[in-house]
Amino acid sequence: MDNKKRTSSKLKATDTLDTRPHIFGRTVTSTFRKMFSFKHQPPGNLRTGMIPPIVFGALLVNIPTLLKLRSYLKQERSKRPADDVRILFYSDNLDETNGIANNLRNVIPYMRSHNMKAFLAGSAFNTRPCGVVESSYCILLPRLFSMEQLGYANSELAIPRVGPVLRLLKRYPVDLIELETPSPGAWLVCFCAKVAGIKVFSHYRTDVPTYTRTLVKAKWMYYFVLWLMKIFYGMTKPVVSPCKDYAEILTSQLKVPASQVQILPRGLPLEKFSPDLRGKGMWEKFNGSPSSAIQTGSARKVRFSFIGRISKEKNLEFLNGVWKKFAALHDDVELMYVGYGWYLEEIKKFYEGDNSVHFAGEQGGEALASLYADSDFFLFPSVTDTFGNVVVEAMATGTPALVSNYGGPHDIVMDNAAGRILPIDETAWLEALEECRRIYLEEPETYQEMRETAHERSLKYTMESSTKAQFDFFRKLKRKYYRF
C-alpha cells in the first residue's frame, strides 16, 4: 500500500487508530485518508431500512467508473494465461474476532506465500477514524455506513466506501470475488462486481437464518432474512459449503440448485497447535492454582474447556445448565472458558461463587494453543457453526472434542474414537461428561488412544490440501465464466 497516497494531513501521528483493545496478531502497516461516513447507528429492526437506499445510492453514483473499470479489466485479463487466477476474498467482519476473520487471516497469507494471487478486504470497524491495512495484506476499507448488528453485540453491519475499492481493483486486478457473508457490504460489492464484469460467488460460512431466529426477538425478521438470503445466494452462485449438512440447507431452504453447491475443505495453520504443548503450566495460570504447584497426572482435576467467541448462538446457555448439574456431583472437574464476547459477563454472573469454572479471557499464539493442549476434553455444543475451526485446533493438540450432531463440527470428529457426537439433549451430555471423566481417571490407555486419534484426524485440515483444492476450483470457475 502506498502510504503517500493513502494518508492525509487530516490524520495526525497522534491519532488513535482503534479505540478497542489490541487484537492479538494484528498490526496496522498503513492507513487510508479520512473520509466521510454516516454516524454509527445502534441496532434496530426498522433502522435496517437505511441500508438498501445507501447500497443502491453508492452503486448508482459509481456506475460510470465501474463501466470504465469493466473495459480496463477485460483488456488486462486477455493478456494473462487462463490459469493465472486472481481472487479477492471479501468479508465485512474481518475487523472483529470470530472464526471467519481468524480463518481468512491465516489462509490468505499462506496462499500469498505460496505464489497464489489472493487478496483480502473488509470494512473498518466504527472504532477507527479511517480505513487501515493490517499486516500488509488485510485491507479494512473506509466505511460509509455502519450499525450494530441486531442481537449480536460488538459486531457490525457495514457498507464500505466504493471509491477506494475501485482504485484498488485497478491497481490489483482480480478475476473472481468470493463473498464470505451475506452482509450489506457484500451486497454492494456483488452489485459493483457484476457491473464491472467480475465473476462473483459466495461461501456459506454463517448460518444467518438460525442466528436471527436465536438472537432477534422479532419473529418476522427471521422470514425477512431468509427471503434476503435466497436472493443473495441466487445472485452469487456457485456457493461453497464446508460440510454436507449446510450443503443440504442451501438446496432445501435457500433453493440453491445442487449443481451450484461446491463442498470444499478448509485448512488451518496446524503447525501452531501441538500435543507437545501439554503440561507446560498454562492452565494453572488461570485456574487459581499457585504457580509453584503445577499438578500433573491423575492428582489434578479433569479439565474441560470451551474456547471461542462467548456468544449465545454457540449454545452456551445449554452448556451452562449441563455443567452446573455435572459439577454439583463431582469436586474433581473444572471448566475453562477461553475467549471474549458480549455474553461473557452474563456467564460470569451465572457462575459467581462456583469454583469449578474459570475464565482465561481472549488469548492467542502459544498461550491459546497451550490451553487447548492442557484441556482433557473440549466442549462445543454449537448448532450454528458451518465448520468449526476451534474443534480442529483442539484436536490438533490431541484434545478429544464433544460436539453437537448438527452442522460442521460433527464431520470433523466423525465418531466416538476422537470424542463424542451428541444431540442437544441434557441427559445425553451429562452421560457423556460422566463417561469422559471415568475414561480419563480409570482408563488411561483408552484416553491416550482418543488423543492420538483426535490429533491424526485434525491433519486432514492442512493449509496445503485445502488451498490446493480451492485454487483448482477457482481455475475451473475462471475458465467457465470467461470462456477461455
Describe the structure.
There is one protein chain. This protein is an alpha/beta fold. The chain has two domains: 3-266 and 464-482, 3-Layer(aba) Sandwich (Rossmann fold); 270-461, Rossmann fold (3-Layer(aba) Sandwich). It has 17 helices and 17 strands. The chain has helices spanning 3-6, 51-61, 63-78, 99-113, 162-171, 184-195, 208-215, 219-235, 244-252, 316-327, 344-350, 365-374, 389-396, 409-413, 426-442, 444-458, 463-482; strands spanning 28-31, 86-90, 117-123, 132-134, 138-141, 143-148, 156-160, 176-179, 199-203, 239-241, 261-263, 302-307, 333-338, 357-361, 377-380, 401-404, 419-422. The chain has a nine-stranded mixed sheet, sandwiched between helices. A six-stranded parallel sheet has the order 14-13-12-15-16-17, with helices on both faces. The protein has a two-stranded antiparallel ribbon with strand order 6-7. The longest helix has 20 residues, at 463-482. The chain is globular and about 70 Å long. The model is unreliable at 1-9 (pLDDT under 50).
- Mean pLDDT figure: 91
Record the strand order, biggest sheet.
1-4-5-3-2-8-9-10-11
Q: Give the CATH superfamily of the largest domain.
A: Glycogen Phosphorylase B
Secondary structure tally, helices: 17
Biggest beta-sheet profile? 9 strands, mixed
CATH architecture of the largest domain: 3-Layer(aba) Sandwich
Total number of strands = 17
Structural class: alpha/beta
Strand content: 15-25%
Domains counted in the coordinates: how many? 2
Instruction: State the end-to-end distance.
Output: 31 Å
CA-atom Rg in angstroms: 23 Å
Shape: globular
